[in-house]
Specification:
The protein is an alpha+beta fold and 176 residues long. The protein folds into two domains: 84 residues, ACT domain (Alpha-Beta Plaits, 2-Layer Sandwich), CATH 3.30.70; 85 residues, 2-Layer Sandwich (Alpha-Beta Plaits). It is 30% helix and 45% strand. The chain is built from five helices and eight strands, in the order E-H-E-E-H-H-E-E-H-E-E-H-E. Helix 4 runs antiparallel to helix 5. The model has no long low-confidence stretch (mean pLDDT 95).
């Protein structure tokens, strides 16, 4: 029977971390089903959904300290269900992109509007980069959203558009 474990962690970035982690897991025939890894500042951050047989996943949970020692990362593990076993109400997937001049509170403004309407954020990425000519900090947020079928998309777009206007931001919401 397949078991799943979520591993999360962070630590000082260096070349070879992903190879070390994937090699450690592959040696025990554990599979990385889903992952997010990034360098943020000088820190490497990761979250992995690892699957395998019950014994292999139990071994990983009990031997995570060995992977911590090898990589120097602060790691934590938590058992979870397989992706298809998750119980949720029926939803439609949407992609939301927000961009504009950076200022505090952008993420909160949009996530609050989504939360108040029962929309689940499946993934969210943000970044700030200098505009090509002016060097002005430009904020971009990309989200994958699970919108319950009971939510009226026109009303959701109206609320999100209002948030964009208040923050002088561009906003787009499209089905995936």
């Amino acid at each position: 029977m397949k078991s799943c474990l979520v591993i999360s962690g962070s630590g000082a970035d260096r070349v070879g971390l992903v190879d070390e982690i994937s090699g450690f897991l592959a040696a025990k025939e554990l599979n990385i089903e889903d992952s997010r890894m990034a360098v943020l500042g000088g820190e490497f951050a990761l979250i992995l959904l690892v699957s395998g047989g019950e014994l292999e996943v139990k071994w990983l949970s009990e031997n995570l300290a060995e992977l911590r020692t090898r990589t120097g990362l602060n790691l934590a593990a938590r058992p979870t269900v397989a992706p298809g076993a998750r119980q949720m109400e029926q939803t439609l997937l949407y992609r939301m992109v927000v961009s504009g001049m950076d200022h505090p509170g952008i993420v909160r403004q949009f996530t609050s509007a989504l939360h108040n309407r029962g929309v689940n954020i499946e993934s969210l990425e943000t970044r700030v980069a200098p505009a090509p000519l002016s060097g002005t900090p430009v904020f971009t947020m990309e989200c994958k959203l699970a919108v319950p079928v009971k939510v009226k998309i026109a009303q959701l777009k109206q609320v999100l558009n209002q948030a964009a206007e208040e923050g002088n931001l561009d906003f787009d919401l499209e089905p995936i």
